[in-house]
Amino acid sequence: VLFDLMDERKKPCFLFLNKCDMPAFDKERAMRSVRERLSSDILFVDGAAEELYEEAAVRDENFMERYLSGEATETELFDALQKLVGERKVFPAGMGSALTGEGVREFMNMLDRLTRTDFDPNAELRARVFSIRCEEQLTAHVKIEAGTLRVRDAFSFQGQTQKVGGLRLYQSDRFQSVPEITAGDVAAVTG
User: Fold this and answer.
1) DSSP-derived 3-state class of residue 146
2) Degrees (nearest 5) of the Cα angle 113, 105, 21?
3) Which is nearest to 98 in space by CA: 1, 170, 22?
Protein backbone atom coordinates (compact mmCIF):
# COMPACT_ATOMS: atom_id res chain seq x y z
CA VAL A 1 0.00 0.00 0.00
CA LEU A 2 2.75 2.47 0.93
CA PHE A 3 4.78 1.56 -2.17
CA ASP A 4 1.68 2.20 -4.33
CA LEU A 5 1.12 5.56 -2.63
CA MET A 6 4.71 6.58 -3.37
CA ASP A 7 4.12 5.57 -6.99
CA GLU A 8 0.92 7.63 -7.22
CA ARG A 9 2.78 10.68 -5.92
CA LYS A 10 5.85 10.00 -8.10
CA LYS A 11 8.18 10.01 -5.09
CA PRO A 12 11.51 8.18 -4.99
CA CYS A 13 11.48 5.16 -2.74
CA PHE A 14 14.19 3.39 -0.71
CA LEU A 15 13.63 0.10 1.09
CA PHE A 16 15.23 -1.39 4.18
CA LEU A 17 14.66 -5.07 4.95
CA ASN A 18 14.72 -5.39 8.71
CA LYS A 19 15.36 -8.35 11.02
CA CYS A 20 17.97 -9.82 8.70
CA ASP A 21 19.90 -10.98 11.75
CA MET A 22 17.30 -13.63 12.53
CA PRO A 23 18.52 -17.25 12.20
CA ALA A 24 15.81 -18.17 9.68
CA PHE A 25 16.55 -15.21 7.38
CA ASP A 26 17.19 -16.25 3.77
CA LYS A 27 18.70 -13.33 1.85
CA GLU A 28 18.05 -14.67 -1.67
CA ARG A 29 14.47 -15.62 -0.86
CA ALA A 30 13.79 -12.20 0.71
CA MET A 31 15.24 -10.36 -2.30
CA ARG A 32 13.20 -12.48 -4.72
CA SER A 33 10.01 -11.95 -2.70
CA VAL A 34 10.39 -8.17 -2.51
CA ARG A 35 11.04 -7.93 -6.25
CA GLU A 36 7.99 -10.10 -7.02
CA ARG A 37 5.66 -8.19 -4.70
CA LEU A 38 6.80 -4.62 -5.33
CA SER A 39 8.96 -4.14 -8.42
CA SER A 40 11.58 -5.88 -10.49
CA ASP A 41 13.46 -2.55 -10.39
CA ILE A 42 14.47 -2.94 -6.75
CA LEU A 43 18.24 -2.77 -6.58
CA PHE A 44 19.93 -4.25 -3.53
CA VAL A 45 22.96 -2.11 -2.80
CA ASP A 46 25.23 -4.34 -0.79
CA GLY A 47 28.70 -3.49 -2.02
CA ALA A 48 28.68 -5.43 -5.32
CA ALA A 49 30.01 -2.51 -7.40
CA GLU A 50 29.99 -4.32 -10.75
CA GLU A 51 26.28 -5.11 -10.39
CA LEU A 52 25.56 -1.41 -9.75
CA TYR A 53 27.40 -0.43 -12.93
CA GLU A 54 25.46 -3.03 -14.93
CA GLU A 55 22.08 -2.08 -13.48
CA ALA A 56 22.69 1.62 -14.17
CA ALA A 57 23.87 0.86 -17.72
CA VAL A 58 20.74 -1.18 -18.51
CA ARG A 59 18.51 1.73 -17.48
CA ASP A 60 20.47 4.79 -18.68
CA GLU A 61 21.67 5.00 -22.30
CA ASN A 62 24.21 7.77 -21.70
CA PHE A 63 25.78 5.86 -18.84
CA MET A 64 25.69 2.64 -20.91
CA GLU A 65 27.93 4.22 -23.56
CA ARG A 66 30.50 5.24 -20.92
CA TYR A 67 30.29 1.85 -19.20
CA LEU A 68 30.71 -0.20 -22.37
CA SER A 69 33.69 1.91 -23.42
CA GLY A 70 35.28 1.22 -20.03
CA GLU A 71 35.40 4.91 -19.18
CA ALA A 72 32.60 5.13 -16.58
CA THR A 73 33.78 6.57 -13.27
CA GLU A 74 32.30 6.03 -9.83
CA THR A 75 31.10 9.65 -9.84
CA GLU A 76 29.28 9.03 -13.14
CA LEU A 77 27.79 5.84 -11.69
CA PHE A 78 26.31 7.64 -8.71
CA ASP A 79 25.13 10.55 -10.87
CA ALA A 80 23.31 8.02 -13.08
CA LEU A 81 21.85 6.21 -10.06
CA GLN A 82 20.68 9.51 -8.53
CA LYS A 83 18.89 10.32 -11.77
CA LEU A 84 17.32 6.84 -11.94
CA VAL A 85 16.14 7.06 -8.32
CA GLY A 86 14.59 10.48 -8.96
CA GLU A 87 12.80 9.16 -12.05
CA ARG A 88 11.59 6.05 -10.15
CA LYS A 89 13.39 3.75 -12.57
CA VAL A 90 15.25 2.05 -9.73
CA PHE A 91 14.45 1.52 -6.05
CA PRO A 92 17.57 1.07 -3.91
CA ALA A 93 17.28 -1.35 -1.02
CA GLY A 94 19.42 -2.29 1.92
CA MET A 95 19.06 -4.87 4.64
CA GLY A 96 20.09 -5.35 8.22
CA SER A 97 18.79 -5.11 11.75
CA ALA A 98 17.41 -1.91 13.23
CA LEU A 99 17.70 -3.48 16.69
CA THR A 100 21.44 -4.19 16.49
CA GLY A 101 22.23 -1.39 14.03
CA GLU A 102 23.64 -3.84 11.49
CA GLY A 103 23.34 -2.35 8.01
CA VAL A 104 21.77 0.91 9.22
CA ARG A 105 24.80 3.16 8.67
CA GLU A 106 25.38 1.62 5.25
CA PHE A 107 21.74 2.24 4.39
CA MET A 108 21.95 5.86 5.56
CA ASN A 109 25.13 6.40 3.53
CA MET A 110 23.38 4.91 0.48
CA LEU A 111 20.37 7.17 1.05
CA ASP A 112 22.64 10.19 1.27
CA ARG A 113 24.65 9.22 -1.81
CA LEU A 114 21.69 8.38 -4.05
CA THR A 115 19.51 11.42 -3.42
CA ARG A 116 19.86 14.91 -4.81
CA THR A 117 19.33 17.76 -2.45
CA ASP A 118 19.64 21.49 -2.31
CA PHE A 119 20.22 22.05 1.38
CA ASP A 120 21.00 25.52 2.73
CA PRO A 121 23.85 25.50 5.29
CA ASN A 122 23.03 29.11 6.26
CA ALA A 123 19.36 28.51 7.11
CA GLU A 124 17.98 27.85 10.58
CA LEU A 125 18.98 24.40 11.82
CA ARG A 126 16.61 21.59 10.84
CA ALA A 127 17.50 17.91 11.19
CA ARG A 128 15.79 14.54 10.91
CA VAL A 129 16.62 12.08 13.69
CA PHE A 130 16.78 8.48 12.43
CA SER A 131 17.77 6.68 15.60
CA ILE A 132 18.79 7.36 19.16
CA ARG A 133 21.10 5.00 21.02
CA CYS A 134 22.21 5.06 24.60
CA GLU A 135 25.34 2.98 25.10
CA GLU A 136 28.30 4.77 26.70
CA GLN A 137 26.59 8.07 25.92
CA LEU A 138 23.47 9.32 24.19
CA THR A 139 23.96 9.25 20.39
CA ALA A 140 21.46 10.50 17.83
CA HIS A 141 21.92 9.64 14.14
CA VAL A 142 20.70 12.58 12.10
CA LYS A 143 20.48 14.00 8.62
CA ILE A 144 20.95 17.76 8.63
CA GLU A 145 18.32 19.21 6.28
CA ALA A 146 19.18 22.89 6.76
CA GLY A 147 21.67 24.94 8.71
CA THR A 148 24.87 24.04 10.52
CA LEU A 149 25.42 22.29 13.86
CA ARG A 150 28.66 22.77 15.81
CA VAL A 151 30.16 21.09 18.86
CA ARG A 152 28.89 22.85 22.02
CA ASP A 153 25.85 24.33 20.23
CA ALA A 154 22.66 24.26 22.23
CA PHE A 155 19.51 22.97 20.52
CA SER A 156 15.98 22.01 21.49
CA PHE A 157 14.69 18.45 21.15
CA GLN A 158 11.28 17.34 22.41
CA GLY A 159 11.00 20.46 24.54
CA GLN A 160 14.38 20.06 26.25
CA THR A 161 17.52 22.06 25.63
CA GLN A 162 20.51 19.87 24.83
CA LYS A 163 24.17 20.65 24.20
CA VAL A 164 26.21 18.97 21.47
CA GLY A 165 29.12 17.03 22.99
CA GLY A 166 30.56 15.67 19.75
CA LEU A 167 29.88 15.18 16.07
CA ARG A 168 30.84 12.14 14.02
CA LEU A 169 30.78 11.56 10.29
CA TYR A 170 30.67 7.86 9.46
CA GLN A 171 32.26 6.06 6.55
CA SER A 172 31.33 2.39 6.68
CA ASP A 173 32.30 1.14 10.17
CA ARG A 174 34.71 4.03 10.94
CA PHE A 175 33.97 7.57 12.01
CA GLN A 176 35.73 10.89 12.05
CA SER A 177 35.08 13.45 14.79
CA VAL A 178 34.40 16.86 13.25
CA PRO A 179 33.81 20.34 14.68
CA GLU A 180 30.65 20.94 12.64
CA ILE A 181 28.16 19.32 10.30
CA THR A 182 26.17 21.15 7.67
CA ALA A 183 23.07 20.73 5.57
CA GLY A 184 23.16 17.44 3.70
CA ASP A 185 25.40 15.62 6.19
CA VAL A 186 24.39 12.33 7.79
CA ALA A 187 26.11 12.13 11.16
CA ALA A 188 25.99 11.08 14.79
CA VAL A 189 25.48 13.71 17.47
CA THR A 190 26.68 12.85 20.96
CA GLY A 191 25.95 14.65 24.14
Assistant:
1) strand
2) 130
3) 22
Q: What is the pLDDT of residues 98-119, one digit of tens each?
A: 888 888 888 888 888 888 777 7
Distance CA 33, CA 55 (A): 19
Q: Which residue has the higher pLDDT, 191 or 62?
A: 62
> Could you give the CA distance from residue 118 to residue 145 in angstroms, rounded to a whole number?
9
pLDDT in tens, 54-71: 989 999 999 999 999 999
- pTM given for the model: 0.62
CA distance 144 to 90: 25
Query: Which amino acid is it at 78?
Result: F
Distances from the Cα of 40 to the Cα of 18, 57, 116, 132, angstroms: 19, 16, 23, 33
Nearest to 154 by CA among 103, 191, 104, 127: 191
Contact by Cβ (8 Å): 143, 108: yes
**Which residues have CB under 8 Å from 42's CB, separation 6+?**
15, 31, 34, 35, 90, 91, 92, 93
Torsion of CA 133, 135, 138, 142, to 10 degrees: -40
- Residues composing the chain: 191
Percent of the chain with pLDDT over 70: 98
